[in-house]
Structure formats: structure tokens, C-alpha cells
Amino acid sequence: MIMNFWPAESMRPARVCLVLAALCTPGALSAQVFQMGLAGWPGIGAQVSYVDLHTMYSLESAVQADFDPFASRRTLHVAASVGAAILPLNVWRTIGQADYGYDLDLGVRFGPRLVFVERPTRDDKNQQFSLFIDPFVRYRLRVGDAGRYFYVEIGPARPVLRAGFWFRI
Q1: Gyration radius (Cα) of the chain, Å
Q2: Cα separation of 16 and 62, whole Å?
Q3: Where are the domains of the chain?
Q4: Which strand (E) or helix (H) includes residue 157?
Q5: Distance of CA 33 to the CA centre of its chain
Q6: pLDDT digits (tens, 9 = 90+) for 112-128
Q7: What is the pLDDT of residues 60-108, one digit of tens each?
Q8: What are phi and psi of 15, to 5 degrees?
Q9: Does the global pTM surpass 0.85?
Q10: Which CATH architecture is the domain 30-168 placed in?
Q11: Distance CA 35, CA 106 (A)
């Protein structure tokens, strides 16, 4: 008689170990991605990012610009940031071998911001440089089979709403 010492119910610890191994393995399912898109609200703008994508997290650097042409005094916001995001759905992908056509990223970026104002006052000049922190949520939807994704991102830093495409490098 052969005894089954590893029944299906006890596979959960092995799957957790698989996730931990994927987290600790550098280069496991990694890719470099170029993120490019338009931004809006409260003004109009653009975002360009480099994303170093790993199995459970990503490391990112971004440049954002936002122009508010409808304000009484037009403003231009320019920001550069670095940050990271966790990819919670990849945990389920690794454990269950599921392949969703979408992703959800939770992350944070921080960095310097410059604000240029039309007809600046003394206060505007004193507040031209600032540091910001931008916690964000990003939804990605796979478009085709070439590793392209459409993304929508929202965070409290200007520009608040950002959307565009990911391209593998």
C-alpha cells in the first residue's frame, strides 16, 4: 500500500514557496518596458516612463508634464520621479498558473517638480520648486500578443489621470 504524503490540500505551502522563490529570483519573468501616454485633469499633458518589470514588482522612473491653458494664469508643471509598484495579480498567476489579459499595479513615485506660472508673483517664484509623492493605481489591458498593453493610471499628483501604451524594449 502506498501512502499519499502530499495530498492536493497540502499543496498550498508548496505554492507559497514557489511565490517566494519567484520573488527572490532576480530576472525571473523580467522585462524592460517603455510607457508613453497622454494625461489630463486638471490640465492636459504627457507622461513618459521607463519600467523595469519583475515577477511581483516593478521599478520605475517617469517624466510628466502638465499644462493648464484654461486657468486665469496659465501654468506648466514639469516633474521627474522614481518609484516602485507591486503587482498583486501576479501572486495569483504564479500560484494558480492563470493568465489574465489584464493587470493591476499599486505603486508610489516621488521626486522634484517645477511649476512655471504666467506673470508670476513673488509667492509663485518662491514655490516654483517642490518635492512630491504620488501613490498610484494602474490598470493594464493586454493589446495583441507582442507584449503591448494599454494602461490607465490615477494618482493625486498632477496630472491626475494618465493613459497610454506600454512597449517592450
Answers
A1: 21
A2: 33
A3: 30-168
A4: none
A5: 11
A6: 999 998 888 888 888 89
A7: 999 999 998 877 888 899 999 999 999 988 877 777 766 778 889 999 9
A8: -70, -40
A9: no
A10: Beta Barrel (2.40)
A11: 16
